[in-house]
Design a protein that fits this description.
The chain is of the alpha+beta class. Helices cover 17% and strands 26% of the residues. It is built from 7 helices and 16 strands. The strands form 3 sheets. Strands 5, 6, 7, 8, 9, 13, 14, 15 and 16 form a 9-stranded mixed β-sheet that branches. It has a 4-stranded antiparallel β-sheet with strand order 1-4-2-3, with no helix packed on it.
Length: 336
């Protein structure tokens, strides 16, 4: 790969990426469109973000000049020449063998325990060494599946159970089941503060990007147009004057949902400095673990339940906070 070469040295033609050139004429009904919108319509098999990256690389030529601004307008009759080649992002989707902690596996379904620190999907700053790279090495069918079969994500520093489809049939069925709230996902969270009121609380608060900090999400008003509905149910397992151990059930799957809703309740997670938590009880990351999954097998229909004990760092943090964890406390039916 290019990143492994000495700076400035040429890359052998043998390993140079293949390039497919497409010549596209802008039809009358696209007159005045943004070029990124038109490209997404004319080349629908690629995402708009990929096409925008091609533009920034100078791979889209209009009227003899590279057009690099996605918002640039085009005219009917313009001829677009597009060099479809692997961007840095595209080249990130390579197989990289890694030790996966497999809880369950058959021809259609894979359940793994993700360790804290493992990024799920390639993104800026993490183009390699992700779970997706590991899945591509784990089984050859992963290369034929969207996102290598990943149907939901955990934050980098969240540990616990994850579902992965191994066949297209299974992956599509899992996506539908999660959207229909037919997959029960339970988490264990260690948080700051004394729990007040009912031991069981439902939070129905929309979540959107924090306008003051693009790295954060926050509870927002739906009528602002920047948020999406988000529902979580919480149940107190143990508590003290300074800490609470809480079981959490997701009903939707928004970015940072549990972290945001717990902070909104006044209980930021231990170690979650992004949302007001502190690195206490030896916990340098957010104290959040995906502890239980229940679902119907996407092909056979059999009911499956998987459980995962918290990793040592979180168990130690629970002990140092003065609380106790009993695995039976997160088993059985969950309210909501």
């Amino acid at each position: 790969m290019q990143g492994d070469d000495v700076e400035g040295s040429p890359i052998s033609d043998e390993f140079a990426p293949d390039v497919e050139t497409r010549v596209l004429d802008v039809p009358p009904d696209m007159h005045g469109w943004r070029i990124d919108r038109a490209l997404a319509k004319l080349i629908p098999e690629f995402s708009r973000s990929y096409l925008q990256q091609l533009m920034s690389d100078g791979a889209v030529v209009v009227r003899g000049a590279a057009l690099r601004k996605p918002a640039a307008k085009i005219a009917a009759g313009d001829r677009l020449t597009v060099a479809l080649r692997p961007t840095q992002q595209a080249q990130a989707f390579v197989a990289q063998p890694m030790a996966l902690d497999v809880v369950f596996e058959d021809a259609h379904l894979l359940v793994i325990q993700k360790p804290a620190g493992l990024v799920v999907h390639p993104a800026a700053g993490h183009w390699t060494g992700t779970l997706l790279n590991g899945l591509l090495a784990h089984h050859k069918q992963a290369a034929d599946l969207p996102r290598a079969g990943i149907v939901h994500r955990l934050d980098k520093d969240t540990s616990g159970l994850m579902l992965v489809g191994k066949s297209r049939q299974a992956a599509e069925a899992l996506v539908r089941a999660i959207a229909a709230r037919e997959v029960s996902r339970q988490y264990l969270a260690l948080a700051h503060g004394r729990w007040q009121g009912s031991a069981e609380k439902g939070v129905d608060q929309p979540i959107g990007r924090d306008v003051h900090n693009r790295l954060r999400m926050s509870v927002v008003r739906l009528d602002t147009g920047v948020g999406k509905a988000a529902q979580t149910t919480f149940r107190l397992l143990d508590g003290s004057d300074s800490a609470c151990l809480v079981a959490c059930k997701l009903h939707t799957g928004r970015t940072h949902q549990i972290r945001v809703h717990m902070a909104w309740l006044g209980h930021p997670l231990a170690g979650d400095t992004l949302y007001g938590g502190r690195a206490v009880w030896g916990m340098p990351r957010q104290a959040l673990h995906a502890v239980r999954l229940t679902l119907q097998h996407p092909v056979t229909g059999a009911t499956l339940t998987f459980r995962s004990n918290p990793p040592p760092d979180m168990l130690l943090a629970i002990e140092q906070s003065g609380l106790r964890y009993n695995s039976a406390s997160v088993d059985g039916d969950f309210p909501g």
